[in-house]
Design goal:
3 copies of one chain form a homotrimer.
Chain A (H helix, E strand, L loop, with lengths): L1 H4 L5 H11 L2 H4 L28 E7 L3 E7 L9 H16 L5 E6 L10 H9 L24 E5 L2 E3 L1 H8 L2 E5 L3 E3 L13 H9 L1 H8 L5 E2 H6 L5 E3 L4 H14 L2 H14 L3 H16 L2 H11 L10
Parallel strand pairs in A: 2-3, 3-4, 4-6, 5-7, 6-9
Antiparallel strand pairs in A: 1-2, 7-8
Helix pairs in contact in A: 6-7, 7-8
Chain lengths: 311, 311, 311
């Protein structure tokens, strides 16, 4: 991105330039839905070699129809990269389409749930044509493109940032270890939370509580998340997955058709939110092309505070 | 229902079979709205003799325009049977149409507010053609079919289960004794909460809090209901009706047109939820025809835990 | 209004009478949006002399793009009169249209935030043709007619009543001193909260919590507002503006396009509420023409409790 931000082009010209060069940053989207990633005219580059620290998603079936889904990239605090996005989407597809599965438990391997999005890896994958996912067996894990039919219980600990918090919000029952620290950092970082937080954070915590954190980038604790209604239970550190699994066992034992019908009815009651979901990606892409987004990237590289101009 | 569950028919065949036999369970609906109960081709049976333990609704006018509405079937923990449903619906109609009435206080006689629905009694009444109510002076007390124009304050104690919790959620101001225990049991029991909980529980307590209880069947306390925002005040046991009546007196003293206009405006803001309400009964009836619903009924009869198959 | 309430006309006749005389009370609206005030056929009276205790709005630019907006009529507990309404609307317009501004902090000068609406002053201004505001550079501060594009942090203390509470609810982040006392008094006073409380109070605090206060006129504390999710932080008395400004500095430092896009997306998710907003003024005007509204005004003049008839 540095060539773009060092350009002397005007805001409009810069946007054209970015589009013309197919700059990867403009191609980034969230939830990995099909036809999501603006290709911006760029021909697909050669498939990159798999990153040595690429993430993966671990899957385990527990008795009773529970699918344990682990975000597994502890060496990078579970920063969400394309393999994790694709793995989650395939796991959620499997959950919905395998009749023997009743409920999933989503968790993060290691000391953090998910520290945010691996933007460079997403950009590279988009440029390489790996994203958006081509697989038909994929349901976006942020719950933007389609409603899941079966419930997800999430267990979090450590850092739950940005897309990590959006995956958390998209889950149906939420358990947090007492050492969890949450943040919705996109706005503070010159970007835009395109994974559902603008809709779900406000709905679940209230407008004022959501804006207080989303518009400042301040972190908040598990206790504060519990107070705001985002977390159903707090556990001692390390016990969150066990507790989430206990609850999932209960969900797995009750009538599956009732579970699905209850979820569907509750989704129907908030269906107007889906209009807002449709705007998330265009807004994200528009902001990624802004001068401020370039400034944020430069400031990060140069280890200084960004100075935003609002354009 | 046992003949249905012992049938070797396939799921589809079984549904046809149930429809053809006009099995009473498929005719059950909630809120008693007109044209609610699918008659499923069954000719009306002879009117059953009134049950010796049938419930009733007690009505008392308090000074100032307060209608005290009591669910009165203490011998069965106020399990809601057709006479109670009809009595409540007529009381709510009276509230809305009698200009001298300003507000109602809904409560349960005895040690429990309402332990749930009397499914056999509903089935018998539907088979007998008593339900749906034919009376024009009826407003469904679960608030699914139409919006009430005047407010209801509810006072609860003891067990507040399933349809009991839905009547509670449909009220406008909610007072609970500290010994109250809540549960939304339908999903756990192989059925579906068709009285508004999928919509109102999620809206009032937050998605995660509602799903945590609705999808497990776990009970929760008055204190937890207060924390989740469902209850406005907790009183010592036995004081809940007095406190609810005190608040109703205040509501009765302010300008009635303002009260009605404020309620109407607040309802208009959440009008999209009414789309979800329209789906509740078809979903309920669909699930009642499922194999799992039959399994739940069998397990209950046989005093064993049900084993659900998701069909 | 006294002649109207002493009239022996029927309800319908009285409404006609009021309309024919262009009684000022029927012309009152909130949010000052254009084409808001029903002129009721009355010719504009002569412009009244400015009131000696008329309010004003103080504006101050703080470094970093923060607009400090002060409701300044401490001698009348910041009762909102037409100059304050117009001043707020112009300040909000300036906020949205001045690219160097990022966020506003709204506060009240003196010991109260805003004790309510100055109804006689509004009636006089409407009769004089001063209201509705003719200025194109005006955005209604109650957020009924259009969505603000930039965020407002509000700091409150002392009395926060009626339209004061609605301005508070319309803000995006809310800080309260521990000595704050809130009330939504319109319904208790024979009127109707037409500035958004019916929509936002219910959404933010939950239906039951909002109705418990809105339908009784009871006051509530900062602690209770915090519990209900309406307030993000409580400060010691006198520290609320400093804390609100600290948060505004953080909002001002993050990416402005992201802030605006996040607000816009969150607004889009609750867009169905705008249908309810459209009904507020007609309802307000309808209720102002009621006998009960006249009774409320008479009772106030005669220092007695009003007796409402529901017409």
């Amino acid at each position: 991105m540095t060539e773009a931000s060092s350009s002397s082009a005007t805001g409009i010209d810069r946007r054209c330039l970015l589009a013309a060069t197919g700059a990867a940053a403009v191609a980034l989207g969230l939830d990995g839905g099909r036809s999501v990633y603006a290709q911006a005219g760029a021909p697909a580059a050669a498939t990159p070699a798999p990153s040595p620290d690429a993430g993966k998603v671990s899957l385990e079936r527990l008795p009773g129809g529970i699918l344990l889904i682990g975000i597994d990239r502890a060496q990078a605090k579970n920063r969400l990269d394309p393999p994790i996005l694709i793995g989650l989407g395939k796991a959620y597809y499997q959950l919905d389409h395998d009749d023997s599965l009743r409920v999933a438990v989503l968790h993060g391997v290691g000391s953090d749930f998910c520290v945010g999005l691996d933007v460079p890896a997403f950009n590279a994958a988009a440029a390489a044509g790996i994203l958006p996912p081509k697989d038909p067996d994929f349901i976006g894990p942020a719950g933007i493109d389609q409603r899941r039919a079966k419930p997800v219980v999430v267990a979090v600990q450590g850092a739950v940032n940005s897309i990590g918090h959006e995956l958390f919000l998209a889950a149906d029952i939420r358990i947090a270890a007492s050492d969890t620290l949450f943040a919705q950092l996109e706005v503070a970082n010159g970007s835009f939370p395109a994974g559902g937080a603008t809709v779900r954070f406000s709905r679940e915590a209230g407008w004022g509580n959501a804006m207080r954190y989303m518009l400042t980038g301040d972190k908040w604790s598990a206790e504060e998340a519990y107070r705001m209604g985002l977390v159903q239970e707090i556990t001692p550190p390390g016990k969150q997955l066990e507790r989430a699994t206990d609850l999932a066992k209960k969900v797995a034992a009750v009538a599956p058709l009732g579970v699905r019908a209850a979820l569907a009815s509750a989704h129907e009651a908030i269906a107007p939110e889906e209009t807002a979901f449709k705007s998330l990606r265009p807004e994200f892409q528009r902001l990624q092309r802004s001068e401020d987004a370039a400034e944020a990237r430069n400031a990060l590289q140069q280890k200084r505070a960004p100075v935003f101009q609002g354009r």
